Amino acid sequence: MTVNDPRIHEPLARDGGRPVRSSYLIFGAPDLQDPEIAEVVEVLRSGWIGTGPRVGRFEEQFRDYVGARHAVALNSCTAGLHLSLIALGAQSGDEVIVPTMTFAATANSVCHVGARPVLVDCEPDTLNLDPRAVEAALTPKTKIIVPVHFAGRAADMTALEAIARPRGIRILEDAAHGVETVHQGRKIGTIGDCTAFSFYVTKNVVTGEGGIVTTEDEEIASWIKIAGLHGMSKDAWKRYSDDGFKHYEVEFPGFKYNMMDLQAALGLHQLARVEENWQKRATLWQRYRDAFADLPVQLPAPVRHGDRHAYHLFILLLDLDRLKWTRDQVQHALHQENIGTGIHYRAVHLHPYYRRSLGVRPESFPHATAISERTLSLPFSTKLGESDVHDVFAAVHKVLRAARR
Ligand SMILES: *Cc1c(COP(=O)(O)O)cnc(C)c1O
User: Fold this and answer.
1) Closest C-alpha residue for ligand 1 atom 8
2) Which domains does the chain have, with CATH numbers?
3) What is the atom index within ligand 1 of the atom nearest the CA of 174?
4) In which element (H, E) is residue 151 found?
5) Residue whose CA is at the smallest distance from ligand 1 atom 1
């Protein structure tokens, strides 16, 4: 498809021209609507804003959506990763395999339990962790593998299970991008020993801050539930309820990771629209692919047959050999056209803490290192209207036309 928009040929805003938009298009704007706004107001008026019945309903609704046996809602996906790692037995001296092409939280949570994150490179087309790199990184100390379903695309769970299961290695999925993801007919959230999802403001289902862990294991679910609320005996949140004060007992020193009803009020209605929103992003994904097909970029790879992509992010990998600008210069030029974009991600091994503590070099992860310099995420929220989409088309063409060698 050719994008025919006269704005493409105007002078760049960075050179004093008129920006494509007069107002700023925020990257990752949450799509909040009247039903959840009304529910939040109702929670505020009810006087019970903390953990309560709405969290229970949200857990049930999410569990049913995923088809998992158990779901425990928490205040973030990071909390879910942390508690899952403990539940699966990771501790000091253990190694946990983590893709380096991910958000820092995936690796940070491994450090929180005192284990060593062992970073592995990604595949250059899917950006998901490469099962061959996982195999090469195995040692007798490997306890857990943490695949991330990057941008919503399923990691190769079939290959990872074949590596992990015979060796007794556990699988914890970071499904922060993957609420709607399916791998070979199996819903993400039902495959790994634990799966952690995120409801952060930019994610596909939003509760402000929030996360949830699904698992088939009743014991793990009930431990996470207790560990997320001070280690207090089950249902301790009811202690101030209208059927009288209840004593609680602390079973172990737990964390403060519980989700509030205020958050679940958003989640209940967001989740009710999850498929409708998925459909909208699936359509936009295809339109973006068509609109940017003849630009100096690498477009997202086609979806693996039998899988379902969650379409969380739309990422352009800039072909820097054909551009005279860096990614950061392209991003800044788009910013000046009033188009917000994201970077997913500068790989974990490039951050100072991990460079220092793991003693790793950029050359050890050639794909993730190159992608870190080339990646650019376009606005992709269901909040985008038709004219917003045309503004993105125009701005990307305008800027890359100027940036071309
Ligand atoms: C957002 C994100 C997280 C963290 O989620 P929070 O709910 O903010 O803790 C973890 N991993 C990945 C890949 C993410 O994108």
Assistant:
1) 200
2) 6-29+274-403 (3.90.1150.10), 34-272 (3.40.640.10)
3) 11
4) none
5) 176
Per-residue burial over 256-274, b = 16 or more CB atoms within 10 Å of its CB, e = otherwise:
ebbbbbbbbbbbbbbbebb
> 198 CB under 6 A from ligand 1?
yes
The torsion region of residue 187 among left (phi > 0), alpha (psi -120 to 50) and beta comes to beta
- How many Å lie between the centroid of ligand 1 and the Cα of residue 13? 33
Q: Report the alpha-carbon distance of residue 318 to residue 121 in Å, rounded.
A: 19
The pTM for the full model equals 0.97
State the catalytic residue, choosing from 143, 203, 225, 398: 203
- Reply yes or no on whether 141 is catalytic: no
Q: How far from 94 is each of 106, 116, 117, 286, CA to CA, in Å? A: 16, 6, 9, 42
201 Cα to the center of ligand 1, angstroms: 10
Separation of alpha carbons 157 and 165, rounded Å:
11
Which pLDDT score, from 0 to 100, does residue 244 have?
80
Of 379, 293, 303, 371, which Cα lies nearest the Cα of 342? 379
| Centre of ligand 1 from the C-alpha of residue 303, in Å | 22
Of 3, 31, 396, 404, residue with least CA distance to 204: 31
Burial class (CB in 10 A: 0-12, 13-18, 19+), 329: middle
For residue 19, report the distance from its CA to the centre of ligand 1, in Å: 32
pLDDT tier at 245 (50, 70, 90 boundaries)?
A: confident
Structure tokens at 321: 């050999």
Whole-angstrom distance, CA of residue 195 vs CA of residue 307: 17
pLDDT in tens, 103-140: 999 999 999 999 999 999 999 999 999 999 999 999 99
Ligand 1 within 6 A of CB of 28: no
Q: What is the pLDDT of residues 310-333, one digit of tens each?
A: 999 999 999 999 999 999 999 999
CA distances from 294 to 68, 160, 265, 342, 403 (A): 42, 35, 43, 22, 14
